[in-house]
Amino acid sequence: MNLALSLVMAAAPVSAFAEGARMALDCTTADGSARSFVFAPVEVDDVGAGFVAVGDDAIRGTAGGTFGPWSWTKDDVKYTLLVNGNATAEGVPVLLHALDTNTDPYGVTQTEFTCEAPL
């Protein structure tokens, strides 16, 4: 985990969340499905922790730091994205956890992605 965090931190320094900066993570699943996650700082401290805008809809979310974890809610589905292991030549493994509170019982999905390190 330290290697993953070190690589992400090196690729996305604290200044990545400087005023107006956005962080885009371009990710793929094992079956090749692509998804991008975009985080823009709204009110973050010097280590990137605080409030962020998520995606094109600028949904209010939180960041634990420049390298996550990130959490947000859309359509009553609660999402958390976090680093999920050591970085490799292929990229940084992340896990997207989704808790759907629209269903009874609640639905949970966990999707593993490999993301390019943000520059």
Walk me through this protein's architecture.
The chain is mostly beta strands. It has one domain. 8% of the residues lie in helices and 48% in strands. It has one helix and eight strands, in the order αββββββββ. The protein has one helix at residues 2-11; strands spanning 23-28, 34-44, 50-54, 59-63, 70-74, 77-83, 92-100, 107-115. The chain has an eight-stranded antiparallel barrel with strand order 1-2-3-4-5-6-7-8. Strand 4 and strand 5 form a beta hairpin. The radius of gyration is 14 Å and the shape is globular. Mean pLDDT is 86; it is low at 1-17.
Number of strands: 8
Share of helical residues: under 10%
* Structural domains: how many: 1
Outline the biggest β-sheet. Answer: 8 strands, antiparallel, barrel
Low-confidence stretches: 1-17
Strand/helix succession: HEEEEEEEE
The CA-CA distance between the termini, in Å, is 19 Å
Secondary structure category: mainly beta
Mean pLDDT: 86
Strand fraction band? over 45%
- Name the shape in a single word: globular
> Which strands sit side by side, in order, in the main sheet?
1-2-3-4-5-6-7-8
Radius of gyration: 14 Å
Helix count from the secondary structure assignment: 1
